[in-house]
Each structure stands twice: as C-alpha cells, then as structure tokens.
Amino acid sequence: MVLVFLWLIVAVIVGTFVLSFGFLKKPTGRDRNLQNPILQTQRIKLNREQQLNSLPPGGMGWPLIRNMWSFVRAYKSQIPESFINNLKRRYGETGIYKTNLFRNPSIIVCSPELCRKVLTDDEQFQLGYPLSSLVLDGMPSDYISGSGHKRFHRLTTSSLTRNEPLSLHIGSVEEIVTNALEECSKMKEPILFFHEMNKIAFKVIMTMFLGYATDDTVIASMEKSFTDLFSGLFCTPINIPGFAYHKAVKARKKLVKEIQGVLGEKRERKRNDPNSKIGLIDVIREAEDSKREKLDEEYIIIILVIFLIAGRETSGRAATWATMYLHHHPHVLQKAKEEQEKIMKRRPSSQKGLTLSEIKQMKYLSQVIDETLRRRTNVFALFREAKNDTHLNGYFIPKGWKVLVWQSAVHMEPEIYPNPKEFLPSRWDGFKPKVGAFLPFGAGSSTCPGAGLAKLVISIFLHCFIRNYKLEQLNPGGPVNYLPCSPDPADNCPAGIIKIR
C-alpha cells in the first residue's frame, strides 16, 4: 500500500512538471510534425493497422469466393462440423476466428463463454441477420434491430411465456395434430413426412395467432404461398420469370392478400363477439411503435410472416427429426411410450384431452426434444453485428463486422457432450449444461420468445404420435441437406403412417 502511495506522489510530480513547462516550451520540429494534419492522418492509419493486426486468428479466403468454398464443401459433405474443426486444427482452440462468409468480413465464436458474451452484450452487438426484403419490405427499421425490436420482443415474450395463454391453446393444438395424423394414416400412398409436419406446424401457428382455426382450404392455400416465399429467401434476387426469387415475390403478394382476408375475418368475429378467444394478433394490435402509435396492419402482416418462418421451421423440423430418431432407436421409443401411458393412467376418467400439468410431467419426452434440438440445431449460427469497434477475449472486432455465434459447433463439442453424434436423451438426466453450451433458441434479450410454445407443440405432437402411430420410412438413414441454413431430410422423408390402436 505504501509503495502504491509513493508511485502516486511521483506521478503527481511528473504531471505537474509537464503541465508547468510543457505548454510553455517553444514547439520543436517534432511538436510541429505532430500538429501536421497529414502526419496525423498517417498516425491514425497506423493505429488502425495495429488494431487490425490484433484480429482473431483465421483467414479471409480466396478473392471473390472468400471462405464460402470451404464452408459449402463441409456442409455438402454430410459432416458440417468439419468446417469449425478445420479452423481449430489450423489456428488452435481459441474459440474465436476471423473469416469472410456471405460477402461479409466476419468473426466466428464457437465456445460457450464467448457465445454467451456476444448474445448477452446488447451494448456492443446487435442483430445481424441478412434478412431478405421479401420479408422486411415495409417494416419500420427500429423494429428490426433498434429500440422498437426490444419493445416488441418483450411484448411477445410476455404473451407467450405465461402459463394461461399456453394452456388455453393446448386443446386446439391437440385437435389439429390428431385430425392431421388420422388423415395421414388413411393415405394409400406414402406421404412426405417432413412436408406434412410443416403443414401441421403452419396450421398450429395460424390458430395460435388468430385464436381459432380458420377454413382448411384457406390454410392450405396460405401454406403453399408461404412455402414458395420461403424458398426464395435464400436465392439470388433476380426478379425475372423462371427464377425462384420471382416466384417468391409473387407468392408474397398473394400471401399478404390471404392474410389480409383472415385478419378481416378476425375483426368481424371480434366485433360480433367481444369475448371471443384471444390470439397473439390481439396482443400485437395493442403494441405501439416508436412514436407511441398503434401498429399498422401492414406491419402486423410482416410480423406474422416472421412468426411463421420461425414457428413453422422450428416446430415442424424438430417434430420430424424427433419422430425419426425415436423410430431409429426402439429402446428410446419404448421408454417414451411407457412414460406417456403412465400419464394417461393417472388421468381422471372425466378429463378430455391433455393439460399443461400433464405436459410438465413428460420429463423423458422433454429430454428427447432437447437431444433432438442439440443434434439437429435449427440454424448453424446466430448472426450478430458489431455496433462499435470492440474487443472480445483480447481480440479486436471492427465496427460493422458480422459476429457469427456458431452454436451448432458448441452442440457437437465432445468435452460438453460425450459421443456427440449419438442420439442419447439419457445424457440430459440430471445434466444442466453451463450457460452458452445449449442455444437452440439463442440467449440474452433476443432469445426466441416462442421457445416455450415450440416445445409445447412438439410435446403434443409426439404424445399423439407415439401412443397411436408408427413411422415406416422408405429410406431410413438417407442424406441430409444442411444448406441453405437448416438440416432437413434430403428426400423429405417419404414414409407411411401406420395406426396401431
């Protein structure tokens, strides 16, 4: 402590000397050079070069194609984790690497600690998704990444995480799933199971949004328009007949008209019956923009499209893979089925349908879902962008660079998940991964507000399926399409749905 105090006295004396004599001293040639604007510019450039030299290890790839070739090659190889593993072998286990992907200089983070830091630091990082104008055209800019986005996120999180709204929709979700599976089981020809799951998820999301199930013909038409729109999100934006993007533009216009129709129907119902069932649309209509004004219907339509993209893709995909994994692992399927039967035996004879309490008792089924979400992460990375020049783990990150939180690599880390390629729901028995090690729905202020809803829908679907049906795949173990962003069965899983009771 005495030594520190002595150093403080020395610092004060030196500072006084500089202040007393430094300003009085006649400028030397060196001082005049420091005031030279050209030399100042050169000094700033030198400082910037020094900062850039402290970027994380990695490489920016070849001219024009940058690192996209190695990325695409890894994800086409059926071993997507090889992309990150190659970075680790070449540059060491730093958990952070520089690269150039999707035409942007980027930083990849793939350790739990760094993933958590990026996702929870709203001061330095903002959303950085390259979302297509097909979705966001007409959306207020602050609802994409600014203060409006945070308000909207809090609103939807609040409306989707309270127990009461979720429990109100369990009956309608169970009815949709039961009817759809019954219809599939009656098909004489094999169905494309992945497509059917997406249709079910689409209808569920629309029902949750409106508060009631609308006409099946309207839903089918909307789902077709949405599928065409979604297919164009990852295409080169060439708006000429014959290109997928042009087809997506037309699909968006049609989908908007169809949504306007069901929203008009919703208003009419509300007018005739003020006590009609509340949907997410009713909550969103009460939201305000940055000017404290109610949202225009145009914005509500865009919000619904975003919900459909997130909800249909997460629920439909996870339900598909969970069902496939269960039927590929008979002992897991049997254990999950026994749990469901025990829950049903405890049910009062007067009870009709599932309850939220029963779903919370599905401990093993929850482990099956978590293992599916780990093994088949919905997207390979979460996109963020540096709001300012900043530092992470001692490395420099320039303003405007993308920061890719590669959670799919974390989910396949052997030190966290031994034998990561194996489907082992039992690994979750008593296991709680450290923060940042399990990110199927993100983290921080941008955690997916529909995470609880997605797991609820998947639980209801699996409850109905494993008790009453079995899956007979025509091509078990077929290849997987990991691109453009999510793991899907390449053949869409042709299969028969066989009723067993």
TrEMBL record:
The chain crosses the membrane at residues 6-24. One of its GO terms (biological process) is brassinosteroid biosynthetic process. Keywords: Heme, Iron, Membrane, Metal-binding, Transmembrane, Transmembrane helix. InterPro entries: Cyt_P450, Cyt_P450_E_grp-I, Cyt_P450_sf. Heme binds at C448. Its cofactor is heme. It holds the Pfam family p450. One of its GO terms (molecular function) is iron ion binding. GO terms for cellular component: endoplasmic reticulum. The keyword Iron-sulfur does not apply. Belongs to the cytochrome P450 family. This is Cytochrome P450. It comes from Gossypium darwinii.
